[in-house]
């Protein structure tokens, strides 16, 4: 009996990512919306990385971490949106099992890294506001580098353990994943192996590398808020708080949407709601982060202006150079004539 059952099961080597199933016209509209989202996301985050790397005024821990965050968002939205755009324009929904696992690996590692980076950034703000006199001693370049690399390493290593276990699974179908990217839950639903160990390991990893950073972030902000409230003058309060308000907005948005998505029960009737909400943290956060930082932060704004001034002056000199060449040519012609 067991043997015949085994024979009846076909092993799947390809998944079908259903994505957003709509009419063809709407499909085109979706493509355009996501394409513009992708372009703006890439432009904003690339600008931030360029500013942080090239502008000496931004060579401070807070901006190093911000640059790392923007780098991360570039990878993240490329992993999700490029595949989605390709599928929207070609109509190709199939994806090999290994491709799907690879996509999940990238997405999960980047989410984990983002949690760690956000907590490192809140620790940096905690030192800046609660221990301002020791800031330069505590936040040296070496420590910064270690914290940033630790975030990246822990994200990619922790999820690698989960991936090793996922690779052992056989998938028997059905082969349809009702999502627009390869996520953990839908992937497990299609397996026909014993996944208890995998579930335990995944729980431990997500607990360690997202809940603990979340709690650390929360604790940092509790300290920051109590310190800010103790400042007697309103102007002083505002000044202290303005240095961390952008980060607080980003953190709230990020964890807020993550929590909402995981609170929505995993029932088929709510699948559509879930899809829409997961758009928030997969597509919208990478888009919004650079906007929040560049509109709210004076130093980033000034740095952007400097960059554009530099660019326009470069263009200006090139123009005058061409004029110069033109004049010389005319003079030469004059001589030749
Ligand atoms: C990431 O952080 C490290 C360490 O602080 C820093 O040296 C590096 O420049 C950052 N990367 C970007 C793109 O900002």
TrEMBL record:
<feature type="transmembrane region" description="Helical">
    <location>
        <begin position="65"/>
        <end position="89"/>
    </location>
</feature>
<feature type="transmembrane region" description="Helical">
    <location>
        <begin position="276"/>
        <end position="295"/>
    </location>
</feature>
<dbReference type="InterPro" id="IPR017452">
    <property type="entry name" value="GPCR_Rhodpsn_7TM"/>
</dbReference>
<keyword id="KW-0812">Transmembrane</keyword>
<keyword id="KW-0552">Olfaction</keyword>
<comment type="similarity">
    <text>Belongs to the G-protein coupled receptor 1 family.</text>
</comment>
<keyword id="KW-0675">Receptor</keyword>
<feature type="domain" description="G-protein coupled receptors family 1 profile">
    <location>
        <begin position="44"/>
        <end position="293"/>
    </location>
</feature>
<feature type="transmembrane region" description="Helical">
    <location>
        <begin position="245"/>
        <end position="264"/>
    </location>
</feature>
<keyword id="KW-0297">G-protein coupled receptor</keyword>
<feature type="transmembrane region" description="Helical">
    <location>
        <begin position="29"/>
        <end position="53"/>
    </location>
</feature>
<dbReference type="InterPro" id="IPR000725">
    <property type="entry name" value="Olfact_rcpt"/>
</dbReference>
<keyword id="KW-1003">Cell membrane</keyword>
<keyword id="KW-0807">Transducer</keyword>
<dbReference type="InterPro" id="IPR000276">
    <property type="entry name" value="GPCR_Rhodpsn"/>
</dbReference>
<feature type="transmembrane region" description="Helical">
    <location>
        <begin position="101"/>
        <end position="123"/>
    </location>
</feature>
<protein>
    <recommendedName>
        <fullName>Olfactory receptor</fullName>
    </recommendedName>
</protein>
<dbReference type="Pfam" id="PF13853">
    <property type="entry name" value="7tm_4"/>
</dbReference>
<feature type="transmembrane region" description="Helical">
    <location>
        <begin position="143"/>
        <end position="171"/>
    </location>
</feature>
<feature type="transmembrane region" description="Helical">
    <location>
        <begin position="196"/>
        <end position="224"/>
    </location>
</feature>
<keyword id="KW-1133">Transmembrane helix</keyword>
<keyword id="KW-0716">Sensory transduction</keyword>
<keyword id="KW-0472">Membrane</keyword>
<dbReference type="InterPro" id="IPR050516">
    <property type="entry name" value="Olfactory_GPCR"/>
</dbReference>
